[in-house]
Amino acid sequence: MAKLRYGLIGAGGCGKGKHLASYSQIPEVELVAVCDVIPERADEAADRFNVEAAYTDYHEMLREEKLDLVSVATPNHVHAPATIAALKAGCHVHCEKPASLTPELVQSMIAARDAAGKKLMIGLNNRFTPWAQFAKKYVDAGFLGEIYHAKCGWKRRRGIPGKGGWFTTKAQSGGGPLIDLGVHFIDVANYLMSFPKPTAVSGQTYSRFADTTPFNPNASGYTGTYDVEDLAVGLVRYANGCTLDVEFSWASNVESSYSFVELYGDKGGLKFEKGKLSLFGEAVGAQLDSQPTLPADTAWGMAESKHYVDCILNDKEPLAKAEEAVIVMEIIVGLYESAALGQEVRLGGKPAPATRRKSAKK
Length: 362
Ligand SMILES: NC(=O)c1ccc[n+]([C@@H]2O[C@H](COP(=O)([O-])OP(=O)(O)OC[C@H]3O[C@@H](n4cnc5c(N)ncnc54)[C@H](O)[C@@H]3O)[C@@H](O)[C@H]2O)c1
Hints:
single chain; about 350 residues; Rossmann fold; six-stranded parallel β-sheet; 11 helices; about 30% helix; about 25% strand; binds nicotinamide-adenine-dinucleotide
């Protein structure tokens, strides 16, 4: 059987460290081409992974190479145009998180997928971890009962990626840690809860670390801009009455850096924190805590890329669906809108009525 002809768009940290590193180990895949707007990066990645062709223009790569499968690991604002171009060229696409900058742009990627009859998967690697896969089965088996509240977050003490580069330039990234880190754990929390319908969000963002240390002129896509938040907090309300509390920071004066997801059910609870999954419940009249023994996590992206190749070869639906990415983007963009307005926002775009009303005319 012919191997899947593979190309990468965006040969930076994630493109090389996750996509080339994982796809290069999958026997059914042949690495054919890499593309980066910075020629030295494209060449360096091609040399390192023994890839024949290096391009600086993805349109040219898609025209010349007749690829079957393409990864998109560019700055976020390039995800939608590059994904749509690759789908139109007849490729299956593995696009990095966040899927794009807005729910509408993700919808346009879905429309291109459907028109092309190809597959599209979003790079939400946390779903593929042994802990998340165990937790999903545990929740679906009913051990938590009804989930009525959840929390998720990723707190970094000092971890602003590429200060002054594309990550800190809102037009290119879509925002700071809420979209960068938040997309992972807002996605996992919703996945574990089977994506209840979000109805309203209330958020606040802070930017307190823009001027504390010099900007990094070597940051990828340097613009010298820092117009995003470094801390975002918020609350999501769902149609089923459940709530989700979120907190994401690139920099804050907290004790340590860690990510977490916590689910509160009326029969049991679950907490993933600092790499450990704990389960809380009751048995024979006592409170009972336990920790499952799980296999070690495989290399970054390996389980996800293997899964995607299996989906392509055996016509299965990818686990990380673009339709779910639309919901996650609605929550994230809604939280930014709420922070800007200073009030709760109903999803669908309409702000909730102001809490302090003018007294009605008699
Ligand atoms: N899933 C994860 O765990 C994870 C981790 C890190 C980054 N990411 C995501 O991967 C993407 C890239 O992040 P990164 O850290 O690798 O950034 P990066 O800046 O290291 O790499 C991005 C690369 O894309 C190139 N590029 C920019 N515009 C391009 C274009 N039009 N065509 C081709 N190449 C282009 C840049 O020159 C750069 O080399 C982001 O969307 C980010 O959110 C995901």
